[in-house]
Amino acid sequence: MLEEDNSQAGNNSATEKSPEVAADELTNDKTANLAESGLDSAYLTPDSSDDPESTAAAETSEHQEQLQADNGEIKLGTPALLQVPNDGTEEQAAASQTATDEQSQEPSLEQRLADSVAISAPKAITAQQSNNVQRTSSFSANPIKTGKINLKTITANTLGPREQEAADEPVLRGIHHLFNNRFSQAKNIFEDKADKDPLYSLGLGSMAFLIATMVSQAIFFQIYEHDINVALETLTNAYNIATAQISATKTPLSERFSNYYRSMTSKEEANTQQEPQAEFLSNGTMRAHVIVAESCLQTAILQFLQESMFSYMKGALNLKRSYKSYNMAWQEFQKMGQQAYTLLDEDTISGIQFGIGSIHLLLPMLPTKVLKVVATFGWTPDRPLGISMLKECAAKKRVRAPMAASMLLAYYSILTTFAPQVLAADNLQPAIETLLESQQVYPNSSFFLFFAGYTSRLTKNITLASQSFEFARDIAQGELAAVEFRLLSQYEMAYNYLMTTNWQKAAEAFSELQKEKYWSEAFCNFAYGACLEALGERTDAILAFAEVPQLVPAKKRSKMSGLDAYAIRKVETFQASGYQDMDFTMSALEILCINNLFCMMEPDVLHDCLKLVDKALESIIEREKQEYEIRMRELAPGTAPPNYFDQRGTLLLIKSSILNSLHYYRDSILHLNWIIDHGVAYQSEKWLVPFACWEAGVTTWGLEEKSKSIAFWDRALTYTKYDFEYRLTLRVNLAIERALEQGVQRPAPNQPDKGPSTNGRSRMPKSTSTTLPPDDEE
Predict the structure, then answer these.
(1) Are 710 and 744 in contact (CB under 8 A)?
(2) Which residues of 164-195 are buried (b: 16+ CB within 10 A; e: fewer)?
(3) Is residue 752, in this structure, part of any structural domain at all?
(4) 357 and 229 share a domain?
(5) 737 and 670 share a domain?
(6) Residues annotated as region Disordered (predicted)?
(7) 231/301 Cα distance (integer angstroms)
(8) Is residue 300 part of a domain?
(9) Total Cβ atoms within 10 A of residue 441
(10) Is 86 helix (H, G, I), strand (E, B) or coil?
């Protein structure tokens, strides 16, 4: 059994040992908050240099000196939430003291994460003080040009590898501008030859792709329509130009036969000491094939993020095209052997590594139905190979290096937030290492600051996460993507407020987002009402809920997102009872439960949430008691008996998720059994059973019954057509993949999966019962 009590003690110990920082030079409230996050004050001195390049170099040099201050290699420790301290014996206490002394000399994992955020602190402060005017729309004032390309003017690319590298230097500069938040400069460079060179066009498409995908992170993977259209159009242009270059270099059939005949007859010539050199595709052709593949890959990712089966199938087709080009390029690369590094330019080689590495990370995330289609490609997911190739690509510091680092961080940080109970132990350390390496090269990048924010959440450091999101917003002020980053920061801050139960701040954030009309108006208004309800302002909450259905016209509901559908369904349920059942719901906590955020919250906050859930459960019991007393006194054949299965099931799922996050695994067993046993009784909350199967897997995972975890997660995949199906599918697939990598045996399909025992208890405990200590303390 996993020592969960020790893990909890480790959390408390880590909290007590948070490093102190000097705050003498802090000049405003934002920098003062940095001291609370454990950031070194050396990073907080505003930079007086006006030259962005020299400023970036100075920050990088300063951070490298900080890292070199330690003798030898820095040893990374385990984050506080995952530490397992000793059991209290004298020998173990002495060992613990020794470890503490070592940690005081070496930066902890959390301190290194704080350092990575601090790299961008001076720039964020300077940007905030500059008071740049923000545009109302990023692309309306300075739109990306996506005009039609005259493919008849595209000619074959005859440049050699070294000539190509020299010709692509502007693209490399554009990429550096892009990842240092100089979006307008990057855009100008890419647009210069975007109508005739596929790499320039791909750079422009990648820019729009990054903005669209980063914005989509904040909204349950629902992409803003304008951003995705811009990205798709520019990527299509890159695809068409590269395809035209390939067509222009195709050898006529007569010339192929002539070349073949010469190669055969040359073998018979006398006095020939060398065998004829093998003929390979030219560098220009290989470069075009890689760009075709990458355009299709990014298009597929955008389509996968739209979360519908139709978009998934379109994404699978584009992934197939991408695979076909990458596979051809990979086979040609292997055929070249060591000559590849002289026959190909560095950006083409790193493009092959980026593409193949990305596909190997992407495949396991797809729904089972799509995976069956992808299986026909002939590739099976190989995560270690994918990570290795992406790391090699990132290390070369060429055009695809920051994209490769972003792909790694998307896996290590964003995807880990889907299933931190299973993934965090292995992914936190490489996430922070990748962040530090990337931010030394791109210290002004809002992209990497958002990754730092997501990673900070995994360590339960919500203060540092908020700093990261705010810095990302401030650094982007006045730039092309300022609006996107401002709204994304606002959305992530709203969730941080929810995770600290700061309902007032969360309500203000969601209200502002709804007024912006940028993402899902219906959901933002629903979340706003949920926060007002948590504050006890029921009248205002009801007024907010009543507006939700009006924000999605009836004629658009057939194509509305799952996010809108969820918000409207919840409000219609409230309206069906005349808002008389509001005491039986905790909508704000339900949002946290759906997003699997309880496991990233502090224990004290979780205990407060438990009290709220128990209070709502008591309200249901009291209402049922009143209704049954009436039925005992009067005949009521036309009145339906009390039916609060949906409300009770939702509250019990929230409670189970909180208990699992506190490592009270056995306390959650009875609640999860009740939810699953009453699956047929739910009228509107069809998502409860599959989400309960996920939590049951987390429970058995914590109890070291990991084969049962896979059985429960496999069962979750059998359910369809419920709210956030694709989100849960991704979470489950990631967890199963990691479990199988760890050697956990998958139960046979026909093997009955008996769940954890309730130890003979047959009655559901009272909602007000005191929670037992963690299972490991028994």
Answers:
(1) yes
(2) bbeebebbbebbbbbbbbbbebbbebbbebbb
(3) yes
(4) yes
(5) yes
(6) 1-112, 741-778
(7) 11
(8) yes
(9) 18
(10) coil
pLDDT of residue 383: 87
Domain assignment of residue 162, yes or no: yes
- Please tell me whether residues 385 and 456 are part of one structural domain: no
CATH code at 245?
1.25.40
Determine which helix (DSSP H) or strand (DSSP E) holds 576, and give its type and residue range. Answer: helix 562-576
- Which of 301, 219, 178, 143 shows the shortest CA–CA distance to 488? 219
Using DSSP's 3-state secondary structure scheme, residue 25 falls into coil
C-alpha angle 621-622-623 in degrees, rounded to nearest 5:
95
Same domain, 341 and 204: yes
Q: What is the pLDDT of residue 458?
A: 94
> Where on the phi/psi map is residue 501: left (φ > 0), alpha (ψ -120 to 50), or beta?
left
Nearest to 649 by CA among 613, 686, 675: 675
Domain boundary at 375, 399, 423, which? 399
- pLDDT of the residue at 34: 41
Please state the φ and ψ torsions of residue 432, each to the nearest 5 degrees.
-70, -40
Residues 141 and 138: their CA atoms lie apart, in Å, by 6
CA atoms within 13 A on the CB side of 230: 22
**Cβ-based neighbours of 689, under 8 Å, separated by 6 or more:** 675, 676, 679, 682, 719
Residue 527 included in any domain: no
CA count, 13 A, side-chain hemisphere, 488: 33
What distances in angstroms separate CA 310 from CA 303, 307, 366, 555, one per listed residue? Answer: 9, 9, 13, 20
- Please indicate, yes or no, whether residues 156 and 171 belong to a single structural domain of this protein: yes
As a whole number of angstroms, the distance between CA 265 and CA 550 comes to 78
CA distance 235 to 226: 14
Low-confidence ranges of the chain (pLDDT < 50): 1-93, 103-104, 124, 126-142, 217-223, 253-257, 259-263, 266-277, 752, 762, 764-773, 776-778
Angle at CA of residue 119, ends 117 and 121, nearest 5°: 75
Q: What is the DSSP letter of 723?
A: T
Q: Give me the DSSP letters along 619-653.
A: HHHHHHHHHHHHHHHS--TTSPPP--HHHHHHHHH
Structural domain range at position 748: 581-777
Does residue 175 contact residue 399 with C-beta atoms inside 8 Å? Answer: yes
711 plus 600 within the same structural domain: yes
Q: Which of 672, 659, 662, 741 is nearest to 706 (CA)?
A: 741
Which pair of structure tokens corresponds to residue 723? 């709210």
| Residues 47 and 115 reside in one and the same domain | yes
Q: How far is CA 725 from CA 483, 691, 733, in A?
A: 30, 9, 12
Question: CA end-to-end span of the chain, whole Å?
Answer: 11
Tell which residue, 677, 746, 682, 672, has the closest CA to residue 714: 746
User: Look-up: residue for tokens 């429970």?
Assistant: 699
Q: In whole angstroms, give the CA distance from residue 762 to residue 526.
A: 38
Three-state SS string over 172-197 comes to HHHHHHHCCCCHHHHHHHHHHCCCCC
Q: Which of 399, 420, 435 is the last residue of a domain?
A: 399
What pLDDT is attached to residue 573?
94
Residues whose CB falls within 8 Å of the CB of residue 713, separated by 6 or more in sequence, listed in order = 693, 694, 697, 732, 735, 736
- H/E segment holding residue 49: none
Domain tally, the chain: 3
Same domain, 425 and 334: no
Nearest to 117 by CA among 431, 375, 435, 546: 435
By the 10 Å C-beta count (0-12 exposed, 13-18 middle, 19+ buried), 423 is classed as: buried
Instruction: Give the number of other Cβ atoms within 10 Å of residue 107's Cβ.
Output: 22
Whether the Cβ atoms of residue 117 and residue 39 lie closer than 8 Å to each other: yes
